Amino acid sequence: RSTPWTTARSRPAPSCSLSPTRVLLTPRRLDVALKYRFFRSLVGGDDPDAERLYRWHIEKRSGHRMALGLATDRWKTTLDDYVASAGRLLGSMQRLGFLPQRPIPIDADGELLDGSHRVACAVALGIDQIPVERHPLRRAWAPAWGEAWFVENGMAGADLERLRTDYELLKTAC
Known about the structure:
The chain has 174 residues and is mostly helical. The chain has 6 helices and 3 strands, in the order βαααβαβαα. Helix 1 (31-44) crosses helix 4. The protein starts with 14 loop residues before the first strand and ends with a helix.
């Protein structure tokens, strides 16, 4: 039996709008703060720990796939691929801004479905509004990369404290 929610034709369509970047920053996604720190270091070049921590996060997040030679995030198979891709994203966003034809997908609750690198890069460049596409029937698939994830994966001490500080800074940066 068909209901309005079981046919593709009757499903609510994604809706696009401009969103203040700040509303996309949540304690569930502290990975955005870590990526923000990395992009700021690419812009200013004054934070030698930023790349180390970025690589650490990607390794913890995707290392098991990379160790098997499997692509992650479409094509990246090494940590160097991630670093190079971040540099290309930064260069593109510096030249072209945030491309409106590539909105950030979010779920009905405003959680990121994809695009954490683009959000972090936009904030690092001072872009305070970005296009989002709300998907009312989808829910965030990614694990919560909140403080508990970082602790469970071995981040401690000064690195963890800096992550907390970076998150607070990130919320006021945009």
